[in-house]
Amino acid sequence: MNVAEMNVNELKMTKRLRVSGCILLLGLLVEAFSLFWNHPLAFIAFATLGMFLILGGVALYLFSLLGYTSAEGTGSSSYHGKV
Fold it and tell me: d(Cα 77, Cα 69) in Å, to the nearest integer?
């Protein structure tokens, strides 16, 4: 599937998933850096900044999936209750 075949909702979801992945990666990098940083503020960076970045990335990921499935469910679907 190329970009011309993707609809607008799929492009928005792809962008949101990439942003959430970058936020998660940034949170993991902050936490990894704070493990090697020998200073009392390292725990604060680990516990607050890293945690909020990871939680924000996970929340954005879940909301992007939720938004995509609710937008997808409003259109016609090929499944009509048949198994």
Answer: 12
* pLDDT (tens digit per residue) in 5-29: 567 777 888 888 999 999 999 999 9
Answer for the pair 50, 31: CB distance below 8 angstroms, yes or no: yes
What CA–CA distance (Å, rounded) separates 20 from 55? 10
Give the pLDDT band (50/70/90) at residue 76.
very low
What contacts 54, CB < 8 A, 6 or more positions away? 23, 24, 27, 28, 31
Cα–Cα distances (Å) from 11 to 46, 60, 61, 64, 78, in that order, read 33, 15, 14, 11, 22
